Amino acid sequence: MERRCYQCGCSSSEFCDPQHGHIVTGNLNVITNDKLRRLLTKGPTYREANDLDWKKVFTCIKKGVCELQQEWCAKENVADQVLDEWKCRLLQEVKVQIRALRQKPSVQHRTKIKKVLDDEEVKTYLDQLHANFVITPTDKAGNNFSIVCKKFYIQCLMKELNISEDSDQDKQSQTCRNLKTSNENIVKRKSRSCLRTILELLMIRRDVCF
Q1: What is the pLDDT of residue 34?
Q2: Do strands 16-17 and 22-25 pair parallel, antiparallel, or not at all (unpaired)?
Q3: What span, in angstroms and rounded, lies between the C-alpha atoms of 194 and 178?
Q4: SS3 letters across the chain
Q5: What's the burial of 125, exposed, middle or buried (CB within 10 Å: 0-12/13-18/19+)?
Q6: pLDDT of res. 11
Q7: At 191, phi and psi to the nearest 5?
Q8: Is 36 exposed, middle or buried (0-12, 13-18, 19+ CB in 10 A)?
Q9: What's the whole-number average pLDDT of the chain?
Q10: Backbone dihedral angles phi then psi of residue 145, each to the nearest 5 degrees
Q11: Second label for 192, Cα 20 to 30 Å away, from 48, 139, 176, 199?
């Protein structure tokens, strides 16, 4: 892991967690940009609506109709021209429906959408946010997320991987351990293990079948 010297000003923040000494919070008020904060309050599964490109809509429908024409004609063993009139009438009806939809007020605003994440001010703020914080899902709460100080987040990862310089040897994580071997040897060992497992499964299958 690349070791960088991350700085933080968590100690002076009202959102600093007293237990950790860093910002670890689900309170979105920590985000000072109003547009971004309102967007994040809608949850991690929310997606901003895209502009409706009616030309692209018609092109996709036309492509699907042409493919269907070819499939039907191939299945019935007739020339594609047999369904040309049907295709033209269908596409004309599609154009009529698109024109009608474009006149609806509920649809008209979809052609003038300006995404929050396309806003230059929001993008600049988001870059600054990513430089200092990590946005991560909250455990056992899939629709929520937490904002964590990047320095603290990386320190926790390094301790978990037992590569923290100031980690206590007696309190090292048992999840991971350093291996003094090459990547090639690790791959070979895993390959042999997988092959052994496959052979065992084949033997079991043979015993079941016979």
Answers
A1: 94
A2: antiparallel
A3: 22
A4: CCCCCCCCCHHHCCCEECCCCEEEECCHHHCCCHHHHHHHCCCCCCCCCCCCCHHHHHHHHHHHHHHHHHHHHHHHCCCHHHHHHHHHHHHHHHHHHHHHHHCCHHHHHHHCCCCHHHCHHHHHHHHHHHHHEEEEEECCEEEEEEEEEHHHHHHHHHHHCCCCCCCCHHHCCCCCCCCCCCHHHHHHHHHHHHHHHHHHHHHHHHHHHC
A5: middle
A6: 86
A7: -65, -45
A8: buried
A9: 83
A10: -145, 160
A11: 176
**In what order do the strands lie in the sheet containing 133-138?**
16-17, 22-25, 141-149, 133-138
pLDDT band at 110 (very low <50, low <70, confident <90, very high): low
Q: What b/e readout covers 83-107, taking b as 16+ CB neighbours within 10 angstroms? A: beeebeeeeeeeeeeeeeeeeeeee
pLDDT above 90 coverage of the chain, percent: 38
7 and 133 in contact (C-beta within 8 Å)?
no
The residue count for the chain: 210
Instruction: Dig out the tokens for 183 from the structure.
Output: 């990547």
CA-to-CA distance for 209 and 80, rounded, in angstroms? 51
Q: What is the pLDDT of residue 1?
A: 45
Helices 84-102, 54-76: crossing angle, 10 deg rounding? 160
